[in-house]
Amino acid sequence: MPPVIAVAPCRTLPDYEESVRRAGGAPRILDYEADPVDRVVSWCAGILLPGGIDVDPARYGEAPHPTVAETSPARDEYEMALIRAALAADVPLLAICRGMQILNVAAGGTLVQDIPSQITTLVPHAVNVPKHAIAHEVWVTPDSLLWALMRESIEAGDALKVNSRHHQSVRRPADGFKVTATAPDGIVEAIERTGSRFCLGVQWHPENFWRSGEFRPLFEGFVAACTK
Asked: Strand runs (DSSP E) across the chain, as ranges?
């Protein structure tokens, strides 16, 4: 039987679901009311945190920047509780875009609220269409989990080409996490939690490549960790 992967709800689920299926997992979409966090952690083999709207800056002790247009207290609260329970139980976690941001916040880190107005950069971090358009490269730390999973696609020793659709990013990584990829402008593009079975966050959207398979190794590595 394929491992059951709990997927936190968001508005655009099909690409996440198909990416999990093609990697050998069985996705199950969570419901805030029907799936209490303690029960989820008891039955799932792993948890996928998808992209979506901004994390409320109050969650990391800041007033909102004018560009923070939409947040969801219910989603923040549920996902933060889910993350903390998963980390405590060492349930494998794969976090994508907003997922990486809420993972970092739940563990005690902070975010850049708006890259365009708070960071001086010429790197395009918001290339919205097409979803799989390559926006820039990221520089991957050798010997990291991300490097091990994506080594066949990494060019020139450390460069990996990615898509990008975000205006927030990790500022201060939470204790126990290390940065394992950055954009050329220094924006954090991946974090990992040392000592966990599998705990990886990426800022881009690997799920958009399920047809062509460029980032299938990420999902296959995640699903493999969920089978152990």
From this structure: 4-7, 26-29, 46-49, 93-96, 111-112, 136-140, 159-162, 169-170, 177-182, 188-193, 199-202
The number of angstroms, rounded, from the C-alpha of 87 to the middle of its chain's C-alpha atoms is 15
Q: The pTM is what?
A: 0.97
Q: Which domains does the chain have, with CATH numbers?
A: 4-226 (3.40.50.880)
Q: Which of 10, 17, 79, 97 is catalytic?
A: 97
Segment 183-210, tens digit of pLDDT: 999 999 999 998 999 999 999 999 999 9
Integer Cα distance of 111 and 98 in angstroms: 11
Q: Tell me whether residue 207 is one of the annotated catalytic residues.
A: yes
Q: Is-catalytic flag, 205?
A: yes
Is-catalytic flag, 152?
no
